[in-house]
Specification:
Layout: H1 27-41, E1 48-52, H2 58-70, E2 82-89, H3 96-113, H4 117-126, E3 131-132, E4 138-139, H5 145-165, E5 168-175, H6 183-200, E6 206-213, H7 216-223, H8 227-230, E7 232-236, H9 241-254, E8 260-261, H10 263-273, H11 277-290, E9 295-296, H12 298-306, H13 314-322, H14 325-331, H15 334-347, E10 357-358, H16 359-366, H17 374-382, E11 386-388, E12 395-398, H18 401-413, H19 419-422
Bound molecules: adenosine-5'-triphosphate and magnesium ion.
Residues 58-59, 175 line the site of magnesium ion.
Length: 426
């Protein structure tokens, strides 16, 4: 059936967190989140800490939680528990007081949306002590930390009481925690806030979802050693193959016109993605862009990877988004490519949680003398593609987990497979 051009829709979302209604997979992690939501709705406030590598789906999961909670899908059927929610994104280098200032402003917006006028009135009269500026809330950077947490706690308490009267709970999300100026300061401030809320004020219907990249836990621990233990940790690993497949199939069905994929294409897309949803979204997006007969076949996959007149291509897009040109210079020669490949495999090997590989072992896997690796390793370290363990001699790993995935991605396409179009330099 012919479709109008205005009906065209590419549902893949390579540049933004998944739309909650499209969110796929992550069944186990979502269950953990749901348990925390139910506990909160039943009077045991339970906060979450979502952690994982860059682009693994943390914000998508937090948005899915927000959606499920605010759509009233948390309770048992027939007895739904409704949440109201507010979001803060900590963004690059944001000082602690700005994060809390934003949260206060979001609480005001939340009260406005819910038409809780008494709460808005309370906020207007009571948060003055720590605010300056006419455009909403800005906490004075000099403001005393204890005053700030007490004010926040009091504001949340107001909302919580109003919400409780309507049988509602509150979800407060702080995303990109690791990006803020001082995560350790956040940890102690948050801990004081949480104690204040749950112990002093006996608030029962509020939960936080804190979101940050792997490593954020160490930063939080530096501010408050036991904070992490008080949060329910949700770690996002790479997605299992069946969830990747589910994700791909669901998005294809949502395309307009709907697309079918040849089995070869579906399994190749899932293999290339390696459980990393960002890659799958890029590949899916590219495939739908280049397809013109509603059937995704091998030729479409090649076009999607390399690009066409009207579409940039997955490889150039990923390269431009995440990697430096140095990387392409290095992988043009065989030896650095082999070394990177060994380190890339180690980076995703769960039995090597930190991805370190001994130089002797690299040499064995590459098939050369250990001594001959030096110039290559040095050059790779100069480019920032490889790092050396500062605590142990002769241990190396790839510069980042994502770089490891990308090296494997390129390797799996293989210059031998599509030489001219994908790797004109060869
Ligand atoms: N469960 C999912 N279903 C569908 N798409 C997903 C899912 N998880 C992640 N994605 C996709 O993967 C990409 C990265 O997702 P997201 O932005 O949520 O990751 P992130 O971990 O928050 O990244 P960052 O570390 O950069 O903040 C996006 O393109 C998003 O659409
Ligand atoms: Mg994110």
């Amino acid at each position: 059936m012919a479709h109008q051009t205005e009906d065209k829709h590419n549902p893949f979302e390579p540049d933004r967190p998944a739309t909650p209604a499209y969110f796929a997979g992550r069944t186990r992690e979502l269950q953990t989140c749901l348990r925390a939501m139910r506990a909160t709705a039943n009077g045991t406030p339970t906060s979450l800490l979502i952690v994982g590598e860059r682009g693994i789906g943390k914000t998508s999961l937090a948005r899915a939680c927000d959606y499920v909670a605010t759509e009233g899908q948390v309770g048992v059927p027939g007895q739904p528990t409704q949440f109201v929610s507010a979001w803060v994104v900590a963004e690059g280098g944001m000082p602690l007081n700005d994060v809390w200032g934003r949260l206060l402003r979001q609480l005001d917006t939340l009260a406005e949306r819910a038409a809780w006028d008494s709460v808005r009135q309370w906020l207007r009269t009571n948060i003055r002590g720590v605010t300056v500026g006419s455009l909403g809330v800005t906490i004075d950077p000099q403001a005393n930390g204890a005053t700030v947490t007490e004010t926040l706690a009091a504001a949340i308490h107001q909302l919580s009481a109003r919400a409780l009267a309507e049988d509602k709970s509150i979800m407060l999300i702080v995303d990109e925690l690791d990006m803020m100026e001082d995560c350790a300061a956040f940890a102690s401030s948050f801990r004081a806030l949480w104690q204040h809320l749950t112990v002093s004020l006996s608030v029962t219907n509020v939960m936080f979802i804190l979101v940050g990249r792997l490593g954020v836990e160490d930063q939080l621990a530096a501010g408050h050693p036991s904070l992490a233990r008080e949060l329910t940790r949700v770690h996002l690993p790479l997605m299992p193959p069946e969830e990747m497949r589910e994700l791909f199939d669901e998005y294809l069905q949502r395309a307009a016109p709907p697309r079918q994929a040849e089995e070869y294409v579906s399994s190749r897309v899932c293999d290339l993605s390696q459980g990393y949803p960002t890659f799958l979204q890029e590949l899916g997006y590219g495939l739908v862009e280049v397809d013109d007969d509603n059937l995704l076949d091998e030729a479409d996959l090649l076009d999607a990877l390399a690009g066409t007149a009207g579409y940039e291509g997955v490889l150039p897009r990923l390269g431009a988004k995440y990697f430096d040109r140095k990387m392409f210079t290095e992988i043009r020669s065989e030896r650095p490519r082999d070394i990177l490949r060994v380190l890339a495999d180690a980076a995703v090997d769960p039995s090597r949680p930190q991805g370190w590989v001994q130089r002797r072992h690299i040499a064995e896997l590459v098939g050369v003398e250990s001594g001959s690796l030096s110039p290559y390793l040095n050059s790779l370290m100069d480019s920032g593609l490889v790092e050396r363990d500062p605590t142990r001699s002769g241990h190396y790993r790839i510069g980042s987990f994502l770089l490891g995935l990308y090296v494997r991605f390129i390797h799996s396409i293989g210059p031998q497979l599509y030489p001219e179009r994908l790797f004109p330099e060869y």
